[in-house]
């Protein structure tokens, strides 16, 4: 399943035109924009204050006053989903940042150097991959205590080998190309070449992988919060809302249904976006269509 | 071929040794004193110290590590602090739940995914393909624990067809035992099946575009025969890779799923052991899982060599 | 095709028979939250051990009844000397342990001597501290001599930690408990369940159940579906927060009883700014007990104003001392020089009363300017950080031991509270046996704790039992943590 991406030789205009014709991309893009917008709007306005507990209004069914009902503390579910989007996005985004920030240089370095360094870095990758990610995340949060920051670190660590692999594979495909040889002949150092020529050419690969890891990060955060190890109250998070909902499925199923759907829709949107970007930028996949 | 296999084996063993050091080191810094936990609120410092000695917690670090590794190799994992029984017995008991669960889930996801992948690949771009892949996209996006909750309320609470959770034990009969693994297996299998179906489809499409398939078609072989005899076989490599990777996901998934269905499996054991600071149990199970993941990946690597003879020469 | 039909039919049949309603059954599956670490009640503090074995597998000289009363058990009667120091127990005869060995006075001597020995691992050695000697008079008579009179001695002998074990099996009870009770141990599937079956050679009134399985269900999320689907028929200790899920369901009976659990917002009295009385009082005024009980305990639970169960004769109602009053709380903070509020941490152990109560309390304290960071901890960490190292600002916990107001006078206890006046009252209390006088002293002690706002007194933890409406005979209250099955039966 090696993604081989050539340098896009098209103009921005033709890419945009293709994007508008790509169904996956369009749907994914719209969903992603809506989720991000929802998170941003929550900073200035939510239907209700999510930090205010109104015990007398607890577990109200969906109505015109509370579209998605209220939770066990009388908080508005819709408002909580809006604010929770912030948390999901923040955790997943920073975790992707950690993965890219550490993984990409490692992968590029391994590809540039080759030999023993490459081999040992890749073996280190294998080592991380050998640990079931969720199990390790549970262990990390058990050691350092539950919370959003530790969840980010736990998820981010497992993004590192993913990006390292992608960057390395992409870079290895670029290195033998003529324009690299030309650059080397011009006396540029390997680091320089990596930064100036190799990385820009693997950027699309990383973008696609980034959206996938972003979606996985949201799922992972939800999983950690669900076992009580993610973001802590009063900060609402989708996984935590499900955690609170599971003991109230009979009396307040809406507490589980809506946050669950928020996760599904967001992850779906990101995956579609990733697929769409890959389709648009990957000439090989275009050939298949 | 031998050199290739040997290299993979050496790498696997080196990874294992490193992993064992990481596991041991990580658990050393886990806060919370197991001796204090065992003795409860009223124990004196002397009593705690005595128990620490008895449990061997006061020995030097290196010695404890070597002792632990030696034990692992001879399948003597030590005794659980909380249950005061040999860890190997606990593991054996729990394995009787987790292994069938993982295997059923793996089988289920394969049985769902391969036909869907085949179907989609053979009607690429048509309505059936779009619907199947749309469903797969949805499947990938659903958190398995949420799906599990929905399944419980639909099938166990509403329809009362299967138990909501728990495990009667194999001694209660094969069917009651299987029945209680059914929902968890479905909850585990669905997201995996969705991923696998997508991989199978794209792998098949890739293969179907290869020249030799076109040749086979041109020779007048029926489409179905081409699909089954040539395409599927060659599409097995990426499918196998994903299956190997999924094994790790599946194991991780059982931690949450076993907790949702309160199945007495390895995943729940390790989760409980972490919260109870039963370090020996945590160490042993994490190592076991790591061994399993590495072994499965090794098997996948080796089976590449058999599926694709070209690889043998290359490495 | 025909084969498939047969298989399908067989499968459906199996499905139908296994999920159909039971008639006149004699088996019971009981849900418990925590798994016992082992099965010897004389060698561990964990309440989960008693929840499975007390009165079912093991019996003592006396036993505690459903409402906390002392009842005869293996001792059919007893006589107390005039000076209150010598107890002569008359034992039942013809009693056998589950392994077939006979029970007699020597087993009693063995058990009591073992429990109070220097190397004893009994978790409640204090229960036996007053015993001077144990003598076998004849196989059916035991004489226990105390160092000094002890009013609670018969009650103490009814604890799970004081059950009678046999010398032949004492060492293996952790794995394979051998007692004299109406049920004998059958199997323990670690992490899953413990099964007891009716003992054929029981000496007392025969029990109705043939088999009782204690299934371990750690979280409430799994408890509700298990109950609804009929897998588990009784949860004697149900999470109050989940009651709403079953209370309108006619298939179940929800029984609200009392416990001895004072649920408190514990405060580290030595850590600034909590060392200031004004700050602690401000917290007391900021707390809205009704909202806490409604939100964390489904509206169940009686508010308390000090450390005493409202069911106790010594109880003094002090809940009116600090009514919910945000302005007053802010004013007190201002007096303490903290008009801009401050930050602190709130460490929460796993039970739902703590985790849910913590969120509500954090919100209430935020209203007066105290910004709490919630830190959920596992019991292991709670014991380590809060209870042992006193590394905490605030925490929520329920003190379920009966009559435990003296903990506030213990040196080095995790509240870090030190008040000589209070200590004096407790010291005097220990020397007083007159009930009326004791109650007066206990009343004074309660007042001091309330005046000092030592901790935030919240409410008395309810005991919520949920079980099949056809099930009879389970305990409604929890004078001790136990699931006595001797009177349990299915109606119909």
Automatic annotation (TrEMBL), chain A:
Please give the GO cellular component terms listed in this UniProt entry: plasma membrane
Q: Show the PROSITE patterns listed in the entry.
A: ABC_TM1
Q: Does the keyword section mention Methyltransferase?
A: no
Topology relative to the lipid bilayer, per the entry, is:
Multi-pass membrane protein
The domain of life for this entry's organism is Bacteria
**Residue ranges of the ABC transmembrane type-1 domain?**
85-274
- Residue ranges annotated as transmembrane are 25-45, 89-112, 124-145, 198-231, 251-274
Principal localisation: membrane
Instruction: Cite a single GO BP annotation.
Output: transmembrane transport
Quote the InterPro entries the UniProt record gives: BP-dependent_transpt_permease, MetI-like, MetI-like_sf
Subcellular location per the Swiss-Prot or TrEMBL entry: Cell membrane
Keywords assigned:
Cell membrane, Membrane, Transmembrane, Transmembrane helix, Transport
Pfam family name, one: BPD_transp_1
Which SUPFAM superfamilies does the annotation name? MetI-like
Q: Which family does it belong to?
A: Belongs to the binding-protein-dependent transport system permease family.
The entry's protein name is: ABC transporter permease
Source organism of the structure: Mesorhizobium neociceri
Q: What is the lineage of its organism?
A: Bacteria, Pseudomonadati, Pseudomonadota, Alphaproteobacteria, Hyphomicrobiales
TrEMBL record, chain B:
GO CC term (a single one): plasma membrane
Topology relative to the lipid bilayer, per the entry, is: Multi-pass membrane protein
Q: Which residues form the ABC transmembrane type-1 domain?
A: 95-300
Q: Does the keyword Membrane apply?
A: yes
Entry similarity comment = Belongs to the binding-protein-dependent transport system permease family.
Record the organism.
Answer: Mesorhizobium neociceri
What is this protein's name? ABC transporter permease
What keywords are assigned to this protein?
Cell membrane, Membrane, Transmembrane, Transmembrane helix, Transport
Subcellular location field: Cell membrane
Q: Which residues cross the membrane?
A: 9-30, 99-119, 140-161, 237-257, 285-307
- Single GO molecular-function term? dipeptide transmembrane transporter activity
Q: Cite the InterPro entries for this sequence.
A: BPD_transp_1_N, MetI-like, MetI-like_sf
The keyword Cell membrane is annotated on this UniProt entry: yes
Q: Name one Pfam family in it.
A: BPD_transp_1
Automatic annotation (TrEMBL), chain C:
Cellular compartment(s): Periplasm
- GO terms under biological process: peptide transport
Q: Which residues form the Solute-binding protein family domain?
A: 69-398
Secretion signal, residue range per the UniProt entry: 1-23
What InterPro entries does the record point to? Peptide/Ni-bd, SBP_5, SBP_5_dom
Keywords (A to Z) from UniProt: Signal
Q: Which GO molecular function entries does the Swiss-Prot or TrEMBL record give?
A: peptide transmembrane transporter activity
* One family name in Pfam for this protein: SBP_bac_5
Family label: Belongs to the bacterial solute-binding protein 5 family.
Q: What is this protein called?
A: ABC transporter substrate-binding protein
Organism of origin is Mesorhizobium neociceri
């Amino acid at each position: 399943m090696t993604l081989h991406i050539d340098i896009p030789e098209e103009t921005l205009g033709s890419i945009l035109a293709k994007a508008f014709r790509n169904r996956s991309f369009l749907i994914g893009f719209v969903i992603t924009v809506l989720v991000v917008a929802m998170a941003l709007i929550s900073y200035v306005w939510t239907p209700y204050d999510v930090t205010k507990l109104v015990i007398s209004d607890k577990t109200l069914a969906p109505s015109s006053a509370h579209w998605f009902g209220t939770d066990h503390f009388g908080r508005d579910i819709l408002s909580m989903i809006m604010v929770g989007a912030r948390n999901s996005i923040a955790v997943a985004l920073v975790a992707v940042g950690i993965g890219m920030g550490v993984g990409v240089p490692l992968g590029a370095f391994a590809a540039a150097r080759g030999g023993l360094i490459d081999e040992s870095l890749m073996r280190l990758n294998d080592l991380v991959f050998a640990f079931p990610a969720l199990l390790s995340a549970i262990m990390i949060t058990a050691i350092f205590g539950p919370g959003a920051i530790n969840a980010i670190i736990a998820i981010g660590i497992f993004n590192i080998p993913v990006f390292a692999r992608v960057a390395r594979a992409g870079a290895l495909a670029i290195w033998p190309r003529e324009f690299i040889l030309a650059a080397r002949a011009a006396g540029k150092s390997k680091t320089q070449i990596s930064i100036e020529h190799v990385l820009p050419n693997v950027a699309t690969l990383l973008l696609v992988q980034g959206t996938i890891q972003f979606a996985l990060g949201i799922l992972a955060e939800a999983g950690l919060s669900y076992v009580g190890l993610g973001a802590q109250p009063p900060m609402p998070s989708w996984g935590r809302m499900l955690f609170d909902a599971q003991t109230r499925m009979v009396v307040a199923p809406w507490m589980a249904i809506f946050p669950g759907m928020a996760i599904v829709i967001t992850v779906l949107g990101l995956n579609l976006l990733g697929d769409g970007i890959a389709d648009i930028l990957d000439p090989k996949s275009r050939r298949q269509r | 071929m031998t050199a290739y296999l040997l290299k993979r084996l050496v790498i696997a063993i080196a990874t294992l040794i490193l992993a064992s050091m990481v596991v041991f080191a990580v658990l050393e810094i886990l806060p919370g004193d197991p001796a204090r936990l065992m003795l409860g609120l009223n124990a004196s410092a002397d009593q705690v110290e005595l128990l620490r000695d008895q449990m061997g917690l006061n020995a030097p670090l290196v010695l404890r590590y070597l002792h632990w590794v030696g034990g692992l190799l001879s399948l003597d994992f030590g005794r659980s602090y909380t249950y005061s029984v040999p860890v190997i017995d606990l593991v054996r008991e729990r394995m009787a739940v987790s292994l069938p669960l993982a295997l059923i889930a793996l089988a289920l996801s394969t049985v769902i995914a391969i036909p869907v992948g085949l179907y989609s690949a053979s009607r690429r771009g048509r309505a059936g393909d779009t619907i199947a892949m749309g469903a797969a996209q949805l499947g990938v996006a659903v958190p398995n624990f949420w799906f599990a909750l929905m399944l419980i309320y639909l099938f166990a609470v509403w329809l009362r067809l299967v138990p909501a959770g728990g495990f009667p034990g194999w001694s209660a009969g094969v069917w009651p035992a299987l029945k209680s693994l059914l929902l968890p297996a479905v909850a585990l299998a669905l997201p995996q099946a969705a991923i696998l179906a997508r991989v199978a489809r794209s792998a098949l499409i890739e293969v179907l575009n290869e020249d030799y398939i076109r040749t086979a078609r041109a020779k007048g072989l029926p489409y179905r025969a081409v699909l089954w005899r040539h395409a599927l076989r060659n599409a097995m490599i990426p499918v196998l890779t994903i299956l190997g990777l999924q094994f790790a996901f599946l194991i991780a998934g059982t931690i949450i799923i076993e907790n949702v269905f309160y199945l007495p499996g390895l995943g729940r054991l390790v989760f409980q052991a972490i919260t109870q600071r039963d370090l020996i149990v945590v160490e042993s199970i994490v190592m076991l899982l790591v061994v399993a993941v590495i072994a499965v990946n090794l098997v996948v690597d080796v089976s590449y060599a058999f599926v694709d003879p070209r690889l043998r020469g290359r490495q | 095709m025909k084969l498939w039909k047969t298989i399908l039919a067989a499968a459906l049949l199996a499905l139908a028979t296994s999920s159909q309603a039971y008639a006149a059954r004699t088996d019971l599956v009981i849900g418990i939250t925590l798994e016992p670490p082992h099965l010897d009640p004389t060698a561990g503090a964990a309440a989960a051990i008693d929840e499975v074995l007390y009165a079912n597998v093991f019996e003592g000289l006396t036993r505690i009844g459903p409402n906390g009363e002392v009842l005869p058990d293996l001792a059919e009667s007893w006589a107390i000397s005039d000076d209150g120091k010598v107890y002569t127990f008359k034992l039942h005869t013809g009693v056998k342990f589950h392994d077939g060995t006979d029970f007699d006075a020597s087993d009693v001597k063995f058990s009591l001597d073992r429990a109070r020995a220097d190397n004893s691992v009994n978790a409640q050695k204090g229960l036996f501290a007053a015993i001077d000697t144990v003598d076998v008079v004849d196989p059916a008579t035991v004489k226990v001599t105390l160092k000094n009179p002890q009013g609670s001695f018969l009650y103490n002998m009814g604890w799970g930690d004081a059950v009678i074990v046999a010398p032949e099996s004492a060492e293996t009870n952790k794995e394979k408990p051998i007692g004299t009770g109406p049920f004998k141990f059958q199997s323990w599937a670690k992490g899953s369940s413990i099964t007891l079956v009716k003992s054929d050679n029981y000496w007392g009134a025969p029990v109705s159940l043939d088999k009782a399985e204690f299934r371990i269900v750690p979280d409430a999320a799994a408890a509700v579906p298990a109950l609804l689907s009929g897998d588990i028929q009784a949860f004697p200790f149900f999470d109050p927060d989940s009651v709403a899920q079953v209370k309108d369901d006619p298939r179940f009976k929800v029984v609200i009883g009392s416990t001895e659990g004072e649920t408190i917002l514990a405060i580290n009295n030595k850590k600034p700014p909590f060392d200031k009385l004004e700050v602690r009082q401000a917290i007391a005024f900021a707390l809205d007990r009704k909202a806490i009980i409604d939100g964390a305990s489904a509206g169940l639970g009686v508010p308390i104003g000090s450390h005493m169960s409202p069911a106790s004769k010594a109880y003094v109602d002090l809940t009116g001392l600090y009514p919910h009053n945000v302005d007053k709380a802010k004013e007190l903070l201002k007096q303490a020089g903290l008009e801009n509020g401050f930050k602190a941490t709130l460490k929460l152990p796993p039970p739902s009363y703590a985790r849910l109560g913590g969120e509500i309390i954090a919100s209430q304290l935020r209203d007066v300017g105290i910004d709490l960071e919630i830190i959920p901890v596992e019991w292991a960490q709670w014991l380590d950080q809060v209870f042992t190292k006193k590394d905490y600002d605030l925490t929520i916990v329920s003190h379920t031991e009966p009559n435990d107001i003296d903990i506030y006078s213990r040196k080095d206890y995790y509240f870090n509270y030190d008040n000589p006046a209070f200590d004096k009252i407790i010291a005097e209390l220990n020397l007083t046996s007159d009930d009326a006088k004791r109650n007066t002293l206990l009343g004074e002690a309660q007042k001091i704790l309330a005046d000092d706002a030592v901790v935030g007194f919240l409410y008395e933890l309810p005991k919520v039992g949920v079980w099949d409406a056809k099930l009879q005979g389970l305990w409604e209250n929890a004078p001790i943590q136990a699931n006595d099955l001797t009177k349990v039966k299915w109606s119909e």
